[in-house]
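FAQ: What does a ligand-bound record look like?

Like this one, built around magnesium ion:
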Amino acid sequence: MDGNGRWATARSLPRAAGHRQGAQAVRRTVTAACRLGVSTLTLYAFSSDNWKRPGAEVSALMMLFRRYLVQEIEQCRREGIRLSVIGRRDRLPADLIPLIESAEQSTSAGNRLHLRLAVDYSSRDAILAAAEKARTREEMGALLGPDVDLLIRTAGEQRLSDYLLWECAYAEFHFTGQLWPDFNQASLEAAIGDFQNRVRRFGAVIHPKPAA
Ligand code: IPE
Ligand code: MG
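The answer part, i.e. the structure of the complex:
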C-alpha cells in the first residue's frame, strides 16, 4: 500500500489525509478480494522501517489501525474474513495488543478470505525468527505463511522493501503507478488479469500445447 503521502501532497493535504483515504482503499480492496475469490490477502500497513517517520505520522497510522480493529471486525466476522496481524507486537502502543488479539480470536473461524495485516513487519526479522525453529523449507513455510502468488506494488515503486522475501520466491509481480488511495476493484481485477497471463514455470520447462 504505497502512495498515500503523494496522494495527499498532490491535493495540498497533510499526509495523514492520504493515510485516511488509504484506509478507505483497504476496505474497498478487502471487499473486492472477497468478491473475486482471493483466498489470502496480505497488506503491508507499516514496516519496521516506518518507525523512522515523524512521530505525528506514526501516531496517525497507529490511530487508523486502531480504528480498523474496532470498526471493521464485526463486518469481517460476518463476511467470513479471518484477520491475522503479522509482525512484531512489542513496540506497538500497548492498547492495540488486546484489540489485535480479540480481532484475531473473533474472526478465527472465517474461511472466505484470510486477511493478513503486516504491522511493524520486517521480512528479514521474520525469516531470522523462523529459522531458529525450522529445519526444512516446509517448516519455514508453516512458520512464515503461504507462498505468494501475486505481489502488487502501487505508486510506481519497484522494490520489495523487506516484504515477504521468502514467500515471494516464485511470486509474480504487478507494478502500477496508481497511488494506493485510488486503488479499487478494477485495479485488483487488472492485477489478477495480468497474473493470469503469466506462464509460471517454477524453474521447469513447459512445452506449449499443440494447437487443436
Ligand atoms: C503508505 O504510503 C505507506 C504506509 C502506510 C506506511 P506512503 O506513506 O509511503 O506514501 P508516499 O510513498 O509518501 O507517497
Ligand atoms: Mg511510500
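Follow-up question: can I read anything off the structure? Yes, for example: The pocket of IPE (ligand 1) is lined by residues 1-6, 19, 22, 45-46, 50, 61, 155, 180 (CB under 6 Å).
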